[in-house]
Amino acid sequence: MSQPTPISASVSMVLPLSEVINWPSEGHFLLKRSSYSNIQVQDAFIFDPQLQFIRRRLTAEKKRVVKRRRNRVVRLYQLLDSHSVCLSLSLSRLILPSQIGLHDGTLGPITIDDTILPLVTPLVDRQTQLIQPSHMRKLIHKASLSQAKEYSVALGNSIRFWKSFWRMDVPLPARNVWFRLIHGKLSATSNLHKIIPSFSSFCRLCNRGSPSETTCHFLIDCRKKYIAWKLIWAHFFPLSPWSRHALLQAILHLNFPQQSSVQSLDSSSIFGCSLLMIWKTHWRFIFDSTPFVPTLVLQEAIRVVQSLVPPRTDNLTSP
């Protein structure tokens, strides 16, 4: 296995000191760490072309550093000498003789290796030309918000959507399956194949020449499951025309079809129970070799739905 490419000395010299020092977890040291976020390594250390490694700046060399930074550099030397803090491994290796590996009086390549360039370049603040923790936090926060927004738009997951989802009256196991389906995190063979390449991605219910078992194929597009959904739809929603698009609208966007009559159970409960029965019947087939029969799935879905219907309270007449 190839070793990771070390960051060159020229790149290390422009890193903030706060990120190349191993600081204790005590509170006052955390405050000290933040005070070194705008000081570069080259303010405290210098490359010696004769010795061919990085060393501390001498007294005369410190005069080139701004006085405010010079005082903190001196304090850093005191912390290092008292072993209160220590240098990180990435910087320590450059202080050892012959570790830079060049004998032409240079610091090594002035550019970053292509393998780590995409990781480092976005973190450099254009104004200060430093990799500052505050700038990194802003970038990470911005990237997280952007990713969350794109993910939400892709799934149509508005705040209103999730409020409706969590208010649905469905069994807890059904909600779990439904939640994983919306996020594409079901145990479909295509997802397992990405983790374990030797695991085949074909659908166990279909023939081996079928497409890979994606999340939608797992619960909807598989031939037998598709038939089961048509039977469930015809039983509970005969007034609404059946289509795959209408089914996806109900499951992924909570746009439910019209029921045949005014019932005491929401459409969300019917779809939740149906999802759960298809899920359970699938795994009975996988682990117990129980045949996947669409008509039996319908019967089980009807049974579970009826168990959720609240009992009627008849008017009691006084004796």
Automatic annotation (TrEMBL):
Q: Which Pfam families match?
A: zf-RVT (PF13966)
Q: Which organism is it from?
A: Rhizopus microsporus ATCC 52813
Query: Which InterPro entries is this protein grouped with?
Result: RVT-Znf (IPR026960)
Q: Which residue ranges does the record assign to the Reverse transcriptase zinc-binding domain?
A: 157-229
Q: Taxonomic classification, please?
A: Eukaryota, Fungi, Fungi incertae sedis, Mucoromycota, Mucoromycotina
**Protein's recorded name:** Reverse transcriptase zinc-binding domain-containing protein
